[in-house]
Design goal:
The chain is α/β, with parallel strands linked by helices and 294 residues long. 44% of the residues lie in helices and 15% in strands. The strands form 2 sheets. An 8-stranded parallel sheet has the order 1-10-7-6-5-4-3-2. Helix 10 (202-213) links the parallel strand 6 and strand 7.
Length: 294
């Protein structure tokens, strides 16, 4: 079934964090995570496969920072197309024909607005050409940059676009832009799904989602982090357990959210708990569902 049509019928579960999961598997924090699509593809595919087994129906490619400005910091700006294509291939292999592949696109970093449209166009074209089912713009804190990414997506493909911002604890973007302003602007720019991700954790994201729901008829997406991390024994620890996260997912459901997943600090255990909680609400006596055919 088509992605957007499915969102109109029921809630869809997305996967969780890619970066923090890879770090937990021993990848150094200074590594270029997107380059692993080329040098350690089996590791990336393992992450996708574990989320798929946990019940995720949307697998996000390991391409969050696979744009020319960010890759240039690692001397990899010439590999934009290769890294994004491999990102789609690896997610598709784990999807097995029963999950959607979302081409993940994150912000470019400071001082890049001059090249924003071209950089986003290059990355998104590679994701679309490789066969992504949708484009996921995520973790944007500057509204103008998200506008550039949306315009770039519309110029190179006709895939559904999920546009997610990363609000602060008050629901605002940089410069104090509130949901009442950014939700309507993102809808006017032509996003198919409106949402928020990361942030300070599930409670803050749920509160922002409620405000957004009152302003637009677009389907809503939410992928909170597992709270704000603290460093213990040289490792970042996130406070929100899978059980707490699944309870928060039910709050997101009540807020009208149709696409629910996780961001920083979430794991397959978090997504599995969300899947169970949502299945229990929709079908109290049903067993754990691990996805549906496309």
């Amino acid at each position: 079934m088509k992605f957007l049509a499915t969102l109109q019928e029921r809630v869809v579960v997305a996967d969780g964090a890619m970066g923090t999961f890879l770090f937990s598997l021993g990848v150094p924090r200074e590594a270029c995570l997107e380059e692993l699509n080329l040098s350690r593809p089996s590791l990336v595919e393992q992450v996708h496969a574990e989320y798929r087994a946990a019940g995720a129906e949307v697998l996000q490619t390991n391409t969050f920072g696979a744009n020319a400005p960010r890759l240039a910091a690692h001397g990899l700006e010439s590999k934009v197309a290769n890294i994004n294509r491999e990102g789609v291939r690896l997610a598709r292999a784990a999807a097995g024909g029963s999950a959607w592949v979302a081409g993940s696109v994150g912000p470019l970093g400071p001082g890049t607005m001059r090249v924003a449209r071209d950089s986003f166009r290059e990355q998104i074209a590679a994701l679309a050409d490789a066969g992504a089912d949708l484009i996921l713009l995520e973790t944007f804190r500057e509204l103008s940059e998200l506008g550039e990414a949306l315009a770039a997506a519309r110029s190179v493909c006709d895939l559904p676009v999920v546009a997610q911002v990363s609000p602060d604890e008050n629901g605002n973007l940089l410069d104090g832009i509130p949901p009442e302003e950014f939700a309507q602007q993102i809808a006017a720019w032509g996003a198919d799904v409106l949402g928020c991700n990361c942030g300070t954790g599930p409670k803050g994201i749920a509160a922002t989602a409620r405000r957004m729901a009152a302003l637009s008829d677009l389907p809503l997406a939410a992928q909170p982090s597992a709270g704000l991390p603290v460093e213990l024994d040289g490792r970042l620890r996130y406070p929100c357990s899978p059980e707490e996260f699944s309870s928060a997912a039910l709050s997101l459901l009540e807020s009208g959210v149709r696409l629910i997943g996780g961001c920083c600090g979430t794991t397959p255990d978090h997504i599995r708990a969300v899947r169970r909680a949502l299945d229990a609400v929709s079908q109290p006596d049903a067993p754990l569902r691990t996805g549906t055919a496309l």
